[in-house]
Amino acid sequence: MAGSSHGHTPAAWTGVIIAFIGFCVSGAFMVMAQPVGFWAGMVIVALGGAVGGAMRMAGLGQPRETHRPAKVVTVTREPAGAES
Question: Rounded CA gap, 33 and 42, in Å?
Answer without folding.
Answer: 15
